[in-house]
Amino acid sequence: MKVSFTLNGDPITADVEPRTSLADLVRGEHRCTSVHLGCEHGVCGACTVLIDGKIARSCITLAVSLDGAMVTTLEGLADDALMARLREAFRTHHGLQCGYCTPGMLITAHDLIRRKGALAEAELRQGLAGNICRCTGYAGIVAAVAAAMDEHETTKSAASIAAE
């Protein structure tokens, strides 16, 4: 089956089997290696991407269902200022170890900050709950996302004051 969508800003047209997952398509044919396959049941969050601006599990999303969609992987957020803050915060706050969950955590954190802004720690932990990490114990991840969230809110406030 033929499917056409936008991947990280580039138009893609592909012939795929009806059972091909988005994860398999973008990793195998388009070298988006930030999309990790963990559970392949949509539970672990390692394969998290943005589809039309909303987080989704690419391992359980059929590629044929994406005709006309806009798909963004971590590679597509390379020049995003918020993502740069998140990457730096993960490094500073020791929010990663093996790195397998990191792309999905970063995409989820980016989405949380973009949609919800400042969150209390309990809300932040709830928002990240769909992403499993077997290495870190989550303390560094939560601290990193909280730091990036605080910096984002400060930057947003400064920008709004400057606009006045």
TrEMBL record:
Pfam families xref list: Fer2, Fer2_2
Keyword terms: 2Fe-2S, Iron, Iron-sulfur, Metal-binding, Oxidoreductase
InterPro entries: 2Fe-2S-bd, 2Fe-2S-bd_dom_sf, 2Fe-2S_ferredoxin-like_sf, 2Fe-2S_ferredoxin-type, 2Fe2S_fd_BS, Beta-grasp_dom_sf, Diverse_Oxidoreductases
Chain ranges of the 2Fe-2S ferredoxin-type domain: 1-77
Domain of life: Bacteria
GO molecular function, one term: oxidoreductase activity
Protein name as catalogued: (2Fe-2S)-binding protein
Species name: Rhodoplanes roseus
